[in-house]
Amino acid sequence: MTTPHEILERHFGFREFLEGQERVVEAIVAGEDVCVIMPTGGGKSLCYQLPAMLLEGITIVVSPLIALMKDQVDALAAKKIPATFINSSLGQSEMDDRIARMIRGEYRLVYIAPERFKSERFVRALAPLSIALFAVDEAHCISQWGHDFRPDYLRLKWALKDLGQPQVAALTATATPEVRADIIEQLGLGKFGRKEPRVFVSGFARHNLTLGVSHVKSKADKLARIQEYVRQLQTGIVYCATRKNVEKVAAALGKGVVAYHGAMTPDQRERAQEKFMSGKCSVAVATNAFGMGIDRPDLRFVVHYDIPGSIEAYYQEAGRAGRDGEPSRCEVLYNYADTRTQEFFIEGANPTREVIAGLYNALRRVCGKDGIELPIAEIAELVPNTKNDMAVGSALYQLERAGFITREYRQGSRTYTTRLVEPVKAFGDLEIDYERLEKKRERDLGKLAKMIKYAEHHDCRHHYILEYFGDTETGEGCTVCDNCLSKATGPARFPTDEETVMIQKALSCVARVDGRYGRGRIVQTLVGSRSKDVLDVGLDRLSTYGLLKDLGADYVWGLLNTLIRTGCVTVSGGQYPTLSLTELGGEVMRKQKRIPLALPEISKTTPKPGRAQKGSPTKADVAGDYDVALFEALKQWRRENAERSGGVPAYLIYPDRTLQELARVKPKTEAELLEVKGIGPAKARMFGAETLAVIARAL
Fold first, then answer.
1. Of the four listed, 227, 396, 414, 592, which is most buried by Cβ atoms within 10 Å?
2. Which residues contact 170 (CB under 8 A, 6 or more apart)?
3. Closest to 16 (Cα-Cα) out of 596, 536, 551, 449
4. Confidence class of residue 341 from pLDDT cuts 50, 70 and 90?
5. How confident is the model over 554-581, as pLDDT tens digits?
6. Side-chain half-sphere of 314: how many Cα atoms within 13 Å?
7. Rounded to 5 degrees, what are φ and ψ at 257?
């Protein structure tokens, strides 16, 4: 029988699972319901994509990422995995054709937008399918206690019933213990004769992210800070709370920037997203409408122009930086006055009884036999003493759930047709849980209060976030947040014998990589990381691999900084700086010279064995020292190949880091090509011959 490891290498091109993936895959293949909490960049998608190749039947993936479904399906097709998607971008005939092909067993995976499950006709069409797995991505959207509740997700539990209660996998990047319990309850995990669901919580720690907060007095200060990020780190996302701020910041940054917000047309949003994801543009300025599924791996910064509404929202958005495991910066530009915007959003998401009653009376007054077709802003004008259009939109949802109105979306329109349900119910007869609404409002305000506390926190920011999510392995501090960095080192002194050995190990690792890698890779090597980036280039075979694993990545990162400041290690110039041993460093390593060092403090707690750790700086430092002309030739070939393949994002062929490694190693045979990080058997089969030809022509 084919094993998960064989599928992993043959179709996905990986030698090893990332932390937490293998246990999830094994549970799904064994037929168990699972709830998976895995941080952004941790590889959630593979947790259901790989089992889809082993299970008997089709895997349905519910995802709100309409703009990215085609990219995801194209990426699977490139891996020889039959997949498709169904969402509102398709006409009825195309949708019927894809459903027919699903019934014939032509697909392994089908991505479906959650709103499709509103249609009873659509659910009936799926009923004959042999569904092996029903995967719910971004599962936090089903919980009203989460940070991004989507009403369409509530219909999934009824769809599951009509589809025969198939096995379910719920996956998300951020969920508190309370939200996890709600996900399990809403989706019925572990019910209908199945065992209790397995809950997998991968470590929330992102040691390659430097977290910080800047207290700013004005918008000019914010823009100056953002411009400095763009100048130094070049690639990233600036999040703004409102459309108005997005447009102002994007205009101030000028060329090379895309704007993205919910008021843009679907075509405008798609073009902006494609431009950013393909690498044609390096910076996106966006509201939180730009988010889920953004998996561009080389983002070196995420800056929040306005304070987010919750820790969940912040950590999910910040986590889009550094998905390649390389060091990246995440910063909140904080001014307490900005919290009023988030309070406005909370009021909008949680309408009071008075707002709902005012809307009820207005609709009874203006809705005739044919109903009304008006945008929410115009409906809001009919409701007395209401200034918040968002609150009216939320109240419409409550009245629809209570059976007072129906709302129908007309294709190609930005409005709904609203009709009263006959017989018209009296307001007092509507089943609306006002107590629950008020509790949710209080809870949302509590989440904002904790986000404000984070911004004003004076101790370890990583610790604060991990504790919020119930991660018990929080430790006591780090060297990768602004607060801990400011107090990471003590006075310079001569190291003890034990510390001397530790320093020798670190310097020895720098010597062995011989100027090929930056701080991130060296830290990962010294702490014994099992990440793909380490394994693919054979760093796990170095004699220094794992020598400092008991100290943890945070300490090793601080140690390397000390060795750089004292001149034992030098940092190369350029966009991707690498580390090399100096003459002084060699003398210290061989114990020929003893010098005083300001060493970081060792935490009282150390990481558990086997938990992957990563280092983190304030700037990017990935492998460098490559042939720039060859790199540009490979980029041109990649761009042309992407266009020939229907405009797929260029990074799906090879990310920039793989092109840089190719330009440094310059392989001449397929065997040498397979030694390059980021190229497995699947990539070699698809692009190997062309890659080698480009290299040969350039040499």
1. 396
2. 34, 35, 36, 135, 136, 139, 142, 183, 184, 187, 189
3. 536
4. very high
5. 788 878 888 987 889 988 754 456 889 9
6. 32
7. -125, 140
